[in-house]
Structure formats: structure tokens, C-alpha cells
Amino acid sequence: MLGLWWVTDQTIRETLATSTRNNVDVDLAGLIDIHASGGRSELERRIADRLAVVPVDGSRPHYLLADAKGGAIAGDIQSWPALDPAISESGTIPIGDRTQAYARATLIAPGLRLLVAHEPLDEGPLLARVATVFLLGGAIFVACIALFAQAASGRIRQRVSQVSSAFRASDDDALKRLTMPDRPDEIDRIASQAADAIKRARQLSEANRETSEQIAHEIRTPLMHLDTRLVKALKQQGSDPTTAAHLAEARGEIRRLVGTLEALLDIASSKARTGDSQGMKPVDLSTMVSGICELYADSAEEAGYDFQWQIAPDVTMIGDAAQLGRIVTNLLDNAFKYNRDNGAIRVELAPGPVLTVSDDGPGIPDADRERVFDRFYRGKAASGGQSGSGLGLALARAIAARHGLQIHLVPGTIGARFVVEPESEDAV
């Protein structure tokens, strides 16, 4: 709009200047004709008549009829300007102290020269009106564009929000609608491609899970059959204590293998469903954690541990209750397993939710603070004969990640202190 106004302003100025030059030329030609037909006296009379008329457009004319030396004969211009009449030179000359006029000089007879000058048209009011029109038009134009942009961006935000909601819900019907838009445009095409990618990923994940479960079933079944045979052998072997001990040890190894296999499947399943809220419901963490702590209280008393818990009321979150319970039990198992004799175990639950499980065991070196969450990793504290596959903390972290939580170790003077809390923005 600004560029268009500038072009219009310059065009108006040039048009008015051209009109003034044309008026001077027409006026000069008319006076030459008058001199040719009526002579010098008639020319002087006509110049006087024209000076007496006040033009309505404000473009006042000025004249000078002079002799060969430039002496004034008629007109209102007092002296001859620096314009050569022999070549009909034109240019801008001063009229008084403040006015400039466009003039043209010419010889109309030997020893007689004529100068015609016109003041330029008053362009100020016209240019001001044009500027006002452009200012108002520009304001209306910008307002219309702003309203259109606001409406368009609002519609785009609404559509993007709908697409995001469909992706977050991972609902099959919603994803199907994204892949089959009524009037596809760029956003619909992107959403459709993303929905197709999600569906393919879910199909691959489902196929991988089915394959893993099938493999696990094929391995678990013969192991359980072998365990059954060992039980029968224990009943039939008589009273040989050595053989009974070996058979019992073999049964323990089988159970350990089955537990390891199931833990690996749980970790893979949790990682595959990270960010997937399908099937999640509100969970009363206060009630769930209190119930788990009450179940562990007897074991703590038998082991000689000082077991205490402090649970804030009405702490809830959206999640899978069974999996969230696995986080608590795995952390408690870890605390019971590696605590010192007569040590303390503390469980705290605060709004957030923030779950803290601490013990008075040997603690975890700084170099191992992240490695303890790796699968099959067991630190030096586990070398003292403690059983385990090294999958408990890995499973707890996988479940936490699926629920938008993070598990980390808090540095302390004694023991280990695990904290489960919502993922921070930096972590996300």
C-alpha cells in the first residue's frame, strides 16, 4: 500500500507539471496568433485582459511583452529572465519572492519578444486527499487481512489440535478418519501420512509382540514341563539328600529363567507402549502404595528392618495400576535385598506424584548411578551371593517412561535413595 501510494503521488505530481507546461504552450501559441492577426496593439490589449481574469484553478498566468533589449512593453513581469527567445527556451522562473512558475520565451517579430509563465496548480489539497484515501484504505486493508489471518490461523490451530488429539488418543477410528479426509489439503495429507506411519508402527509392534510372546510360550512350556518332571523325580528319588539338593537347585534355575524371560517381555512391552495412553485409568496411588507397604511390613519385621512409610492422601494419576505397582514392588525388593542388617527402609509419597524409596545399604557408586538401570547389570553389592537377574530397575524405568515418569538416584551419605517423579521439560 505504501509503494502504491508513492507511485500514485509521483504520477499526480508529474501529471500536474505536464498540464502546466501544456497550458503555457497553448497560451503562447494563442497570443502568437493574436499578434499575427491583430498586431501589437491587439496583443497588448489581450494580455491585459488575461491578467485581469482570476483563474478558478489557481494556476495564475504571467506575461511579459518586451523589446529586443528586454525592456517591458506589457505584462506583469518586470524584467526579462535568463531564457533565450531565439530558441523558444523554457524553464522555471521566480515570480516575486516565494513563487516559481513554468515559462517559455519566443520571438514573435523582429525586435519583439514574448514570455508566457503559469504558476503550477495547487497540488497540496489533491495530494492530501489521495494520501488520506490511501491511509484509510490501507488501514481497512490491513484490518481485513488481520481478520482473515486470525480466522485462518484459528481454523488451522483447531485442525492441528484435532490431529494432535487423535494421535495422543491413538484411537483406531480417529486414525482412520485422518487417513480418509473429505477434502484433503496439505495438512490432511501430512496427517494422513503420519496416521499411516503410526498404524504401520503399531502393526509392526503388534507383530513383534506376538512373535515374542510366541517364542516365550515355546520356551516357557518345556521349562514348566521340565519343572514338573523334577517335582516327580524329587518324590521318587527316595531319601538321598544330595540328589534332592541338585534337583531343588535345578528347579530354582528353571524358575529364575522363567522370571527373567517374563521380565524381558515386560520391559519390551512397556518400551513399545511408551506414550500410549490406551487402557490407562485414574489410579489412587495413595491407596495402592499403602497396601503394598502393608504387605511388606511382615517381611521387614522378620528381616529385622525398620520399615516406615509416609503416604500423602488423595495422590492420583492416569496410568496402569498393575504396572505402577510393579515400580513400587521392584524398588522395595531392591531395598530389601541390598539393605544392611537392622537397617531402615523409608517409603514416601507426595503430590506430583513423587515417590521416594530409600534404604541404609552400601549405596551405589557415582559411576554406577545410571548403569544400575541397564538390563542384566548387577553392581558390586550384588556379588555377595544375592540372587537376581538384574532386570528389576530396568523394568521399573521402562514402566515409568511409559507413564511420563522418570526414576533417578539422589546422592546421599548412606544407602540408596530412588525418586520417581514426572519427567522434567528438559528431559522431554
Automatic annotation (TrEMBL):
Pfam families: HATPase_c. The chain crosses the membrane at residues 126-149. Coiled coil: none annotated. Its EC number is 2.7.13.3. It comes from the Bacteria. InterPro entries: HATPase_C_sf, HATPase_dom, His_kinase_dom, HisK_dim/P_dom, HisK_dim/P_sf, Sig_transdc_His_kin-like_C, TCS_sensor_his_kinase. It is found in: Membrane. One of its GO terms (cellular component) is plasma membrane. Its main location: membrane. SUPFAM superfamilies: ATPase domain of HSP90 chaperone/DNA topoisomerase II/histidine kinase, Homodimeric domain of signal transducing histidine kinase. Residues 214-414 form the Histidine kinase domain. One of its GO terms (molecular function) is phosphorelay sensor kinase activity. Keywords: Kinase, Membrane, Phosphoprotein, Transferase, Transmembrane, Transmembrane helix. It is an enzyme of class 2 (transferase). It catalyses: ATP + protein L-histidine = ADP + protein N-phospho-L-histidine. PANTHER family: HISTIDINE KINASE (PTHR45436:SF8), SENSOR HISTIDINE KINASE YKOH (PTHR45436). This is histidine kinase. It comes from Tsuneonella suprasediminis.
